[in-house]
TrEMBL record:
Family statement: Belongs to the alpha-carbonic anhydrase family.
Alphabetized GO MF terms: carbonate dehydratase activity; zinc ion binding
CDD domains the UniProt entry points to: alpha_CA_prokaryotic_like
Enzyme class: lyase
Protein name, entry field: carbonic anhydrase
Record's catalysed reaction(s): hydrogencarbonate + H(+) = CO2 + H2O
Signal peptide: 1-30
Known EC number: 4.2.1.1
Record domain Alpha-carbonic anhydrase: where: 40-266
Pfam families: Carb_anhydrase (PF00194)
């Protein structure tokens, strides 16, 4: 998932012109704000790729040293049978604005009506974005694409709903987004796009639920993950329209380190 602010107090001397006050609270909604202009440019390959994120900046330490990192392989035989009614996803028709942030294409949600509840806490959908190929694997299987629906509660804790995508029929719910993906950071339009999110999710909301991290720097931990087990379908053309812009923007699998994975449903 994408940027959440992390506690830190380091402002590189080279960036005095961009001197900013960085809040101590984590905020999903702070992505793409100027606070991160001083952060190093990370990528998915080579000298600035995932193996090096942790050493690139003191704020990225969790990427290298964290013990509860994401993504991970989710094995159904190892998952603990959890309670039914553990969570509830209430997504509906919503207006979004698309941005290309250089790492993915992100749909910023304009109204706060889409929510997920988990353990009695309510999280509001802030944005969703995509990775290709998938970041999580289920029973060792990697998918063509993974959508991350990033939600935040009143204490700025994040809950991400992961939706796996396999190649198949065109996805009508995501067509308004995938027919106009901004190919560059400059080409995004401010035109709101209406997306029926309820129709995008799979019918079966059984999910692997575990605690992990952002899958992009600063790799902040304490993120609730709800990875739906039933994949959705998108056509090859839809998948390719994203893959032409981002060839591979998936972080490699991380160690589970004995973390509990629950198999739960609504
Ligand atoms: Zn993501």
């Amino acid at each position: 998932m994408e940027m959440i602010m992390q506690k830190h107090s380091v402002v590189p001397l080279t960036c005095l012109a961009a001197l900013v006050v960085v809040t101590a609270s984590a905020s999903v909604l702070a992505q793409s704000q100027h606070d991160w202009s001083a952060a190093p440019h990370w990528t998915y390959a080579g000298a600035t790729g995932p193996d090096h994120w942790g050493a690139m900046d003191p704020r990225f330490t969790a990427c290298g040293k964290g013990k509860d990192q994401s993504p991970i392989d989710l094995e159904s035989r190892d998952a603990k049978s959890g309670k039914n009614g553990a969570f509830h996803i209430a997504y509906e028709k919503t207006d979004v604005a698309l941005v290309n942030n250089g790492h993915t294409i992100q749909a910023n949600v304009k109204d706060p009506n889409d929510t997920v509840t988990l353990d009695g806490d309510t999280y509001h959908l802030a944005q969703f974005h995509f990775h290709t190929p998938s970041e999580h694997t289920t029973d060792g299987q990697r998918y063509k694409l993974e959508a991350h629906f990033v939600n935040e509660d009143s204490n700025k804790r994040a809950l991400v709903v992961g939706v796996l995508v396999r190649e198949g029929k065109p996805n009508p719910g995501l067509a308004p987004v995938f027919s106009q993906l901004p190919a560059s950071e400059e080409s995004a339009s401010n035109q709101p796009i209406s997306v029926d999110l309820a129709s995008v999710l799979p019918k079966d909301h059984r999910a692997f639920v575990y605690t992990g991290s952002l899958t992009t720097p600063p790799c902040t931990e304490g993120v609730h993950w709800v990875v739906l087990e039933q994949p959705i379908e998108m056509s090859r053309e839809q998948i390719d329209s994203f893959a032409r812009i981002f060839h591979a923007n998936n972080r490699p699998l991380q160690k589970a380190n004995g973390r509990e994975i629950d198999d739960e449903s609504e």
